[in-house]
Amino acid sequence: MDSYIVKVENLKADDSYVEITVSVTGEKDLYYPRISACFYTDGDNRILPMDLKSCDGKTAVAIGIFDVPFLFYENKNVKDIGIKFLFSDGKADNVILSPESEIHIPVKKRSGLKHFIKSSRREKSKILFSKLMSLLFAPYRRMKVQPNKVAFLTNRSERLTGNIKSVFFEMTKIPGIEINVLCKKGGVKSNLPNLFKFFKLYATSAVVFVDDYYHFLSYLKKKDDVTLIQLWHACGAFKTFGFSRLGRDSYLRQSSPNHRQYDYVVVSSQEVIPYYAEGFGVAMEKVIPLGSPRCDMLENEDYKKRFKKKFYKENPTLQGKKVLLFAPTFRGGGMGSCHYPADKFEIDNLLSNLDDDWCVIVKMHPYLSERPTYSPKYADRVFDFTANYDINDLLFITDLLVTDYSSVIFEASIVGIPMLFYAFDLNEYSRDRDFYCNFESFVPGKIVLSMEEMLEAIKNKDYKQELVAPFKERFFGDTTGHATDNVIKFTKELLKADV
User: Fold this and answer.
1) Virtual torsion, Cα 284, 286, 289, 295, nearest 10 deg
2) How far is CA 253 from CA 16, 66, 71, 397, 481, in A?
3) CA 390, 392, 395, 400 torsion: positive or negative?
4) What is the pLDDT of residues 61-82, one digit of tens each?
5) Range list of H helices, 374-467
6) How far apart are CA 68 and CA 83, in angstroms?
7) Confidence class of residue 48 from pLDDT cuts 50, 70 and 90?
8) In b/e form, how buried is each residue of 397-416, taking b as 16+ CB within 10 angstroms?
9) How far apart are CA 71 and CA 65, in angstroms?
10) Cβ(121)–Cβ(81) below 8 Å
11) Phi, psi dihedral angles at 137 (to 5 degrees)
């Protein structure tokens, strides 16, 4: 790791807020600097992003304004907070930098009434709903936690998928564990019919797994003897999310309880620990690199053979063909407020310029309704499998992945397939969505900005495939094929029962 010097240029602080301007100077040119404030106290720490104001190549300057009473979640005994800085230059490493003189700020006990009065209408509604939820949950708080009881909660789907599915099936093999599942796709309104079932599970399960933002959790204070584990559905990290988007287009505020109750967050590698800690608003020690359970199957040769046999039986016309898997992510805010400019992916142009043995499989993000269009003459060479197959499984029959900013690149690196990054709107996406690191130097493949560049790369097999193997090593290490076992072993250590 290169050497960096951090200097506090300006500091204004009292017991209610802190404003910091900091500069970081490196030995080498800085090309994608990112600076975050790392607040710490006894037994806790929290990272929050700062706004990069300038970078002249050698020195980066960032500023941040933070609400001191809401730095830590439900930690009412904090009296003194120290500040360090998390710095990344967009490369493989992150480093915690300490200023020459230690910085400590006092903490004033927060006023709930004052916070409520200052809150927006949206925040006031959440606070009032939280009070109602706490009142309804009160009788369940008196219920005893069962030491051998495990719950799986998801609102991503009507059934278990991905990481939470992999852990569930392995957990069912362990005798003596009571397993409960609650699946219902959608937000608070859709899940209200299951509210009291959720209350009982959340109050009596020793370990609770989730795989996304589970809305009900944000409105309740977790019982101390319940362990809440986040099995986030995506691998790695390169697009900013959660609290990393403070001050941008996020509904989250620094005081939001969303995500901050997790006891542990399971991630794919050591590399991404600071990003998940910042995004979820939890201490770095709570982020544990056990691997990505749903990726274990990507190195299971027996599973691969079974899937390919089943797939080609269902799709015999694809047998022996070259498959281009088109799997872009969405633009916009998320479910219900996102889009993709499908006309940018010109299937007619692509297939008319490639050999007849090339076929296109379309796998759009589940939030998207848009689909690329094509002429009827190519109907036997285009397949929309958005609703049919898991994207991980489709990687087994893929010869080339064309994506943009999708996290599927992490799974694809395990399979070892070549990738092209169709980033026609890279400048706009970088500005609006932002990355934890430099996109151009980060991705394990060639970036193309137009259909013409894509066709040229395919014809010349110019994919920069040599980047794939080191990318896999960086973001998975030795966890591939063992992640589910790692999570199961960790869970058994947490359970009080003799299992």
Assistant:
1) -120
2) 16, 11, 11, 43, 37
3) positive
4) 999 999 888 888 876 677 789 9
5) 391-394, 408-415, 426-432, 439-442, 451-460
6) 11
7) very high
8) bbebbbbbbbbbbbbbbbbe
9) 12
10) no
11) -80, -15
